[in-house]
Amino acid sequence: MKENILLAVDLGTSFIKVGAYDETSACIALEMEPVKDYRPGPGIFIQKGDELVDSVVKCLCKVTDRLGDGRKAVAAIAFTGQMSGFMGVDKNWNDITTWSCSLDSRYMPYAKKQMEKLGEKFLCIGGTNFPQMAPKYEWFREEFPQESKKIEKYLMISGYVIGKLGDISVEDAVMDRSYIQWTGLADVNNDRWSEEICSAIELDTRYLPRIVNSNYICAHLNKEIAALTGLAEGIPLVSGAGDKAAGCLGSAVVDYGDTIFEASSYGEISCCVPEYRADQSEKRLDVIPSAVPGDFYTTHFVAGSGITLDWFIDQFAKEPGGSAKESFAIMEKKMEDIEPGCGGVMAIGLLGGSSMPLDGNLRGMFMGFDWSHGPEHFYKALLESFTYDFSLAFERMERLYPEYNIRDVKIIGGGAKSPIWTQMCADVQNKTYYALNREDVAMWGAAILAGNAVGLFGDLKETAKKYVRRQDQYTPDASKGKKYEKYMQLYKEYTKELHNVFEKLQNL
Description:
Blueprint: E1 5-11, E2 15-21, E3 27-34, E4 46-47, H1 49-67, E5 74-81, E6 85-89, E7 99-101, H2 108-124, H3 133-143, H4 145-148, E8 153-155, H5 157-165, E9 174-176, E10 186-187, E11 192-193, H6 195-200, E12 210-212, E13 217-220, H7 223-229, E14 236-238, H8 243-250, E15 259-262, E16 267-273, E17 286-289, E18 296-302, H9 305-317, H10 324-334, E19 346-348, E20 354-355, E21 358-359, E22 365-367, H11 375-400, E23 408-412, H12 419-429, E24 432-436, H13 441-453, H14 460-466, E25 470-474, H15 478-497, H16 499-506
Parallel strand pairs: 1-5, 5-14, 9-12, 15-23, 23-24
Antiparallel strand pairs: 1-2, 2-3, 4-7, 6-7, 6-8, 10-11, 13-14, 15-16, 16-18, 17-18, 19-22, 20-21, 24-25
Helix pairs in contact: 1-5, 2-3, 8-13, 9-10, 9-11, 11-12, 11-15, 12-15
C-alpha cells in the first residue's frame, strides 16, 4: 500500500511555504516562494490576490517536482498562515479590495472610532482588543463606495486561496473558526457571526463566509490548478487553521492549562482553555479559537517584538561583513554576565505602540544609561521589556483561569534559540521553560488537520502529542526572579505614565 502524503500551505506575509509530510510527521519536501507587496505611501501595505495565488501555485509546483511520482500519493491539502486582514471578492472570486494584512494601517481612523463606540462588545463578544475586518470593512465602504458595491464576500486570505484553488462558488466560501476573533465581527464563544456587532456597523452577515472547523473539507482541487501543479484533480482542500492555532496544535499545546510562548516577529503567549473569559479590567488578553473544535487559547501578543530585535541588531550591533545570525550570536555572548536590570538601563520596546492593552501613543524608550553601557545592555534591556510585558499577561491569565496552575511553558520561534532570553523568561515568571524537538509546528499542525479530515489520523490531541517532545529544560532561578520583580513593577508604571508624554510628542 502506498504511503500517503499530506501538503501544508503556509500563507505568510513575505513568503508562501509548502511542506509535504508523511504519516510519521516527517517533512519530506519544503519549498518557499516570495509574495510581492506594494507600499506606495505611508501606512499602505497591500498584496494582489492573483499574485498571491500565483505564488501558491509556483510553490506547489516546486514541491510536486521534488516529490516526482510521490505526488500521486497526496491525500489532502490544508492551509495555515496570516490570521488578520481583509479581502473582498466579487461573485467570480475576483479580488476587489486587494489583500490588506495587519501591516496596512489605512483603516486606523475607523478603528479608533469603532473602538470608542464598540470596544466593550469587541472584547466581550468578539474576543479581541484589536479588531481588523470590522474597521476595514467600514473604511473600504466609505472610501471606495463604488468598488464596495461589487463585493459578494469578505474573506481571510485562506478562504480566498481555497476558493481560487477549489471547485466551490463564492456563496460557499468559508472561514475557519480560528480566524474569527480578529475580525471583530464574531460571537467567539458560539462560533457564529454577531448580529449585534454587524448591525452596529451596518454589515449584513450574508456577506460573511460560513464558519467551519479547522478539519473541514471546504472544496476539492479544481481541474485548472491540478493541470498546473501535476496534482490529481479532486484532492480535498481542508480549511486548516491560522498560524497561531495551527502552531499550538503542532506543538501539542492541547490540554487545558498547556502554555506556549512563540518568540517570533509578533511574540505571543497562549494558554489552552475551555472557554473565553474577557479581560475587562486590564485588556491584556484576547482569545484565539483552537483548531480543536470547542477549545480556545487565551493569548497576549507584543506586536513587532521580534522585528524590534532585528532592527536593533541591524542598526546598532551588526558586525562589519557579518551576517545577522553571527551578530545575534555575538550579542548573546556579550550579555552572559549582565545582571538583571542591565546596570540601570530600562527599555520600553513598544516601537509601534501597545496592542494589548491598546495604546497607539506608546513608543520605544531607553532610560537610565550612562557612558558605561554598551549595545549589549540596551539589547538585553529590550529583552527584559518584552519579558515583563508577557509576565504581566501571565498574571492576568492566572487570575482569569485560576483552576489552571501554569508551571511549564513551551517556547518556539527564533527566541527559542536564545538561552539567555529563555532563562530570563523562566526567572521572571517562575516557570520552567522547554524548547521543542521541531520548529515547523504551524505547518505540521496544518498537516495533522489534513490527515484528520481524510481519516489518516484519529483524535487531534492524541496525534499532536505523539509527535512532539520537550528538550532543553530551563529551570527558574528564584533569586534572580526577586530582582526582576522590582523592575517589572517599574515597567508597568512607566508604560501607564508615559502615555501622555508620548501623545504630546506625537502632536507637536
